[in-house]
Model the fold of this input.
Amino acid sequence: MYIEVNGERFLYNMEAIRNEKNMQQLRKVQKLIIGMGEALLCYGAEISRVEETIQRVADHFQVEEVEMYVITNGLFVNVHQREEHTSTRLKYVPSISVNMKKLCDINELSRRIEQENLSVDTALRTLEQIRAAKNEPVWELVLSSGVGAATFGFLFGGSVWDCLAAFVCGVILQMFFSFLEAKHVNISKVLLDIIGGLLVTIICVILHRIGVSDHLDLAIAGAIIPMIPGVAFTNGIRDIVDGDYLSGCIRLLDAILVFCSIAIGVGLGLKL
Done:
């Protein structure tokens, strides 16, 4: 087909334009699924959930074939739409920060894509809104840390005064972590966990010496709970059960390293 512009005739290749539009659509779908996979990994989802979400979204947008390889800190996604349309992307996920609210929002988005038949552009905008949403205010994190520490102190058999000491330690610990995050202080995760264990132990020892708590061990046990990587440990076991041995071992190793770091900090505090 030819079109005429200013008296000149040009070849108008409909097939080439159609192929270009299909390729652009395929890249948008790939950007969406790899963005959702990255967000799920960042917010603490297990590997099987990431793979299922990517596959379901790709199937909804009628991608003929999608190949993926997901590990704890990265994912590879290869999409095919007929032989001439293929796109491959790699996404590195440097760190994981568990956020259950945003994790639920991403899961809800995947359900809306299927149930409400959202377009790719609408889904991408919604994904960006979820990722750009503000986290919980600092005071909520501080209060939750204190209440969680006090609650576990009670579950471990501590008295009311032991729970009070654990509450104080949990509050101070989260304030310390929030301060470092606000100041963008770059500290090794291992060193940070050692410092956290040392900090709560020293505070518990001081409170025990002045008569605030009755049992030093129970107060410390409750105070260190906010640092325990329960999600990483649980997901590591689930990944291994699902056959994702590499990711499961990585997460379990990370959790065990945190446990050891906390233990070193508590031991140093008791010795000092």
Remarks:
- Residues 215 and 243 are 43 Å apart (CA to CA).
- The mean pLDDT is 86.
